[in-house]
Amino acid sequence: MRTKKTEIIPKPLPLSFYTRKSLTVARELLGKTFVRIINGKILSGLIVETEAYTGRTDPASHSYKGKTKRNEVMFNRPGLLYVYFIYGVHYCANATAGKPGDAHAVLIRAIEPLSGIEEMKKFRQVNNIYNLTSGPGKLCMALDISLELNGIDITSKSEVFIFDSGYTNFKISASKRIGISKAEDRLNRFFIYGNPFVTNHKFNKLK
To answer: Judging by DSSP bridges, how do beta strands 160-163 and 172-175 pair with one another?
Structure first.
């Protein structure tokens, strides 16, 4: 497992990074570092798994049928955090992408914890590090992400942002998305091959 060497945080990814199609952004977010700042404490992790949702052309996307109160952040502009509540239990965090109005989004499915791990364990109430953030609901619970953060600008150093950690030594794999009932055949899920922090990895099930 990689460890964070310093608390100095580089600049967040710029708006231009997100003003591209979600399929491109989803692949290129792998290896970047996701940061959550809570009361001055830095919780962070390497993004190891994402899913792309391609707006009005994607039946599995929240924006497929048009703008609603729930998904309005998707229609705003790229580079925002889109948070939604699902199954009455979990929050999920996405980065908006594409041009304004495209309503593309990239679901951050899993991260490899780097810093603030003890705080993550307290939020999740689990000790197995591989089970901390290995899924979108787990990730949001570990980082205390809820609807209060919906719509914040992740291209600035706010409570949540993403920066380029320079980590590139990995292979990207693609697969079908998880937990959807429409457009199931699309290979819009991307993950770092062999990483033990991705969803449903065997290590996630250890106590």
So the answer is: unpaired
* E strand or H helix at 26: helix 22-28
Domain segments of the chain: what residues? 15-205
Q: What is the pTM of this model?
A: 0.92
- For residue 75, give Cα distances in angstroms to 43, 56, 94: 28, 11, 13
pLDDT in tens, 50-100: 999 998 888 888 887 878 888 899 999 999 999 999 877 899 999 999 999
Helix (H) or strand (E) holding 137: helix 136-142
* E strand or H helix at 74: helix 72-76
Q: Place domain 15-205 in its CATH homologous superfamily.
A: Methylpurine-DNA glycosylase (MPG) (3.10.300.10)
